[in-house]
Specification:
Layout (H helix, E strand, L loop, with lengths): L2 H12 L3 E6 L4 E6 L4 E7 L2 E4 L8 H10 L2
Antiparallel strand pairs: 1-2, 2-3, 3-4
Length: 70
């Protein structure tokens, strides 16, 4: 994971770019306004997925995780 990925995630968090669309005990869905588009992130007991083209743990997922984890 690149350090820039974490920096982007922090920037998204600080800018208020992460919006929780729905959240239950086991599932969270967020919309993250990134640098190149707006992406949906879904997190559940099996992990997180994002609709962006990164195909890996992206800054959108990290920002969502940071939002929900103390």
């Amino acid at each position: 994971m690149k350090a820039t990925t974490y920096a982007k995630a922090l920037r998204y968090m600080n800018a208020g770019a992460v919006e929780v669309l729905s959240q239950t005990e086991n599932v969270i869905v967020t919309r993250v306004k990134g640098d190149t588009g707006t992406w949906l992130v879904v997190g559940d007991d099996n992990g997180y997925t994002c609709t962006c083209p990164a195909h890996t743990t992206c800054s959108h997922i990290i920002a969502t995780e940071a939002l929900v984890k103390p």
